[in-house]
Amino acid sequence: MTPRPALAFVSLILIAGAILLILLTLLGGAVNKNPTNKFYFLEADTTGLGTAAATSRWTFWNVCSVMDGHNACPKVHAAYPFDPKRNFGTSDIFGGSKYYLETRFMFAFVLIGLFFAVCALFLSLLALCSRIGSFLSSALCSVALFFQTLTAALMT
Predict the structure, then answer these.
(1) 67: enclosing H helix or E strand
(2) CA distance 82 to 71
(3) C-alpha dist (Å) from residue 129 to 4, 6, 23
(4) What are phi and psi of 63, to 5 degrees?
């Protein structure tokens, strides 16, 4: 008996878990409900910087203040840039077009990676039955991995 169907089922679970984690990270700051109001990709002490709160958290959607350990995000904007000069209306700190553009592209790449991961999830159902499904699913997983790796590189 070949282990192909068992391995395909394991990969199906792993892809579904990866999509769940991408969605939780992406929804952080967009929805002010538990648990997504606890996710962010940068927290900084911004006391005394222009219009900033004492502690600010950057998400994919906005710069949020912190209230009782949760994100308190104002109006959301897609692909909100990491640019402290523009975010807080001050010129006393670093920043510039490099960080602005990196975070704008990061948002696009995470969406592209999510799209290919969801396509790979659906095609991995074919991997349970056929080798061509395994090939297509692995190809789409590779493309999704590339874009998620690019997103992580831009985030750091």
Answers:
(1) strand 63-67
(2) 16
(3) 9, 11, 28
(4) -95, 125
d(CA 36, CA 52): 22
β-bridge pairing 70-72 and 42-45: unpaired
In what helix (H) or strand (E) does residue 56 lie, and over which residues does it extend? strand 55-58
What are the angstrom distances between the C-alpha of 61 and each of 21, 44, 126? 17, 16, 35
Query: Helices 4-27 and 131-155: crossing angle, nearest 10°?
Result: 30
Model confidence pLDDT, tens digit, residues 35-46: 777 788 778 787
Per-residue pLDDT band at 127 (split at 50, 70, 90): confident
Cis bond upstream, residue 35 (ω within 30): yes
Question: pLDDT over 70 for what percent of the chain?
Answer: 88
